[in-house]
Amino acid sequence: MMYAIQWFRSLLFIIQMYLMMLIMAVVFLIPMLISKRWAIRACHTYCRWVVWTARWMVGITSEIRGNIPTGEVMVAAKHQSFLDIILIFGCMPQPKFIMKRELLWAPILGQYAYRLGCVPVNRGGRAEAVTDMLADVQSGRALPGQLVIYPQGTRVAPGAELAYKKGTAILYAALGQPCVPAAVNVGVLWPKRGIYRKPGKAIVEFLDPILPGMPQEEFMEKIEQEIEAKSNELMAEIGFKV
């Protein structure tokens, strides 16, 4: 009975979440086209809405740990569900994501992504994507901010394993910026697929930054070990058996 009630609450939460996404996207559309600041404001407002409604509708609270990146940095984050996007974007001043290219053509959403400076990539063509992004940076077209990349390239369910992709190291070496690893446990509460949302504390933790100049293989080994170990720790904290 309790499961059925929570499932129904989860369904209502999902419906209102996407409805509000549409409403806010339309309301902020003209200001967003005029200024990037309005695009960021719109997305931050939406993130706050999702966090607030998740708390009272389905019992998911949230916490950000560690030092939130604010300068010109690359953030290499664990990706388990849409919620980690919400939490990571919502806490940083000028976030931009490496994202699937097809999202750029989505009505309204694509325009927001473009204004935020997100970097569209082709699935299966990450080497070309990194080359294109580096060209944007070198030519001055890329907007400043915190560049978020998911080293595994997709959402990974808690307990599942997926190799970290070398494009992260190539980007780290070429940009010459610090890299901040980020661990999460959100997939335990908000799954990659499905409707049910489990009550609990969703956590994103920013780890110590890795300064520029580390050899690429050493860098990849370090971020994978740190992100996976901390994510496992955060998941265990809310009862998931790794």
What does this structure look like?
The protein has a 7-stranded mixed β-sheet with strand order 1-7-6-2-5-3-4, sandwiched between helices. The radius of gyration is 18 Å and the shape is globular. 49% of the residues lie in helices and 15% in strands. Strand 3, helix 5 and strand 4 form a beta-alpha-beta unit. By secondary structure, it is α/β, with parallel strands linked by helices. The longest helix is centred in the N-terminal third of the chain and has 26 residues. The chain is built from 8 helices and 7 strands. The mean pLDDT is 89. The protein has one domain: Glycerol-3-phosphate (1)-acyltransferase (3-Layer(aba) Sandwich), CATH 3.40.1130.10. Helix 3 packs across helix 4, helix 6 runs parallel beside helix 7 and helix 7 packs across helix 8.
Keywords for this entry:
seven-stranded mixed beta sheet; alpha/beta; 242 residues; 49% helix; 8 helices; 15% strand; Glycerol-3-phosphate (1)-acyltransferase
